[in-house]
Amino acid sequence: MNEAVQTSSPFTPRVFSGIQPSGNLHLGNYLGALKRFVDMQSDDMQTLYCMVDMHAITVWQNPEDLRRATRELCAGFIAAGLDPNKSILFNQSQVAEHAQLAWVFNCVARMGWMQRMTQWKDKAGKNQQNASLGLFAYPALMAADILIYHATHVPVGEDQKQHLELTRDIAIKFNHDYGVDHFPITEPVIEGAATRVMSLRDGSKKMSKSDPSDASRINMTDDADTIAKKIRKAKTDPDALPSEAKGLEERPEARNLVNIYAALADTTVDAVLADVGGKQFSEFKPMLSELAVEKLAPISTEMARLMQGQDEIDRILASGATRAREIAAPILKKTYEIVGMVGA
Ligand code: AQP
To answer: Residue 9's pLDDT is what?
Structure first.
């Protein structure tokens, strides 16, 4: 079993995570989440990975684009190394239990908890009155995504840490209010050299799907020339690379590129700097481009190939949803019984 999943909890180890099919799947999603999903796939533990389309519609999505992005994300999961026979791959809206449990959690979570979420504040911005109710309640649906499977471990990027703490708070409050030990207290798994990949144009902002500048991110569908061009144009500083990680402390853009290199090479920042310390960016950037193309080009080629067979992708999602429902339905039934719903 994966080392990150050693647990003393009475719940059977089970991994769940999701990504929104909101287009522009990028290197941050890959290094912070998708690559970790693949690392955690194992023969002796259930892993469920979800295209969270219901989260995606908390902000406007063109229906045709959403359908395409959901299939493209599924293709990305498979191309990155997830095996639909080992992991359960499905889209959230095909398993109604997510929304059903989310309603129960809407009644457990407190308004104040939601108002403190930095993602809500960032995404709603100054115009909170005009943001969707779904965007506000997003973390309760995310808690339901995880707890409907009694998942014990959730691989995510650094930006999701606060939502996972809220998931734990919801599980603790539910268990306490009803005097049960029904939901596990989930562990976030935030590991690797690139848990927070930053924008290529601004080292203080995370790489994000919704950044209006395409040059700020490497998309998983970018070809080799585009990847090389974006890395060549990435913001840096004029100094040579240091030989130790502490030399990157005040240099966010330099740190970001070294973190990306280390994560792609499956090594540590110290090991990278031992090799490249003293080099100028004019020498380091081509090394990074070569590595990025070597790792990402096979994934984008495979994604494009898989997208030719839309029926096959739909079949994988439907079969994943059936398997997911087999786990979710009895947990929802038990939850309804605990809450006092007649007929559960
Ligand atoms: N920059 C990042 N570095 C590391 N991990 C990241 N993740 C996202 N951005 C980075 C991780 O990817 C997973 C899926 O994210 P998501 O699509 O569900 O939502 P998000 O975090 O809102 O992604 P974006 O790209 O930032 O989208 P927008 O622009 O819509 O806000 C999560 O595990 C996340 O941690």
So the answer is: 74
266 and 247 together in one domain: yes
248 and 314 in a common domain:
no
Classified as helix, coil or strand, 12 is coil
Instruction: Locate the ligand 1 atom nearest the alpha carbon of residue 29 and give its number.
Output: 12
**In the 3-class helix/strand/coil scheme, how is 203-245 assigned residue by residue?**
CCCECCCCCCCHHHCCECCCCHHHHHHHHHCCCCCCCCCCCCH
Cβ(15)–Cβ(154) under 8 Å?
A: yes
92 occurs within a structural domain? yes
> Among this protein's residues, is 209 annotated catalytic?
yes
- Which CATH number covers residue 78? 3.40.50.620
Query: pTM of this prediction?
Result: 0.95
Number of domains in the chain: 2
Tell me which amino acid residue 286 is: P
Quick one: 19 and 81 in the same domain?
yes
pLDDT at 6: 64
Which domain range does residue 231 map to?
Answer: 214-305
Q: Report d(CA 326, CA 58) in Å as an integer.
A: 27
pLDDT tens for each residue of 244-279: 999 999 999 999 999 999 999 999 999 999 999 999
User: How far apart are alpha carbons 256 and 5 in whole angstroms?
Assistant: 27
From the list 126, 161, 173, 209, the catalytic residue is 209
206 catalytic residue (yes or no): yes
Q: Indicate whether 3 pLDDT > 80.
A: no
pLDDT digits (tens, 9 = 90+) for 71-84: 999 999 999 999 99
| Owner of token pair 């998708």 | 34
**According to the model, what pLDDT value does residue 174 have?**
98
200 lies in a domain? Answer: no
The CATH number of residue 277's host domain is 1.10.240.10
- Asked whether residue 161 falls in the same domain as residue 21, the answer is yes
Structural domain includes residue 207: no
Q: Is 20 in the pocket of ligand 1 (CB under 6 A)?
A: yes
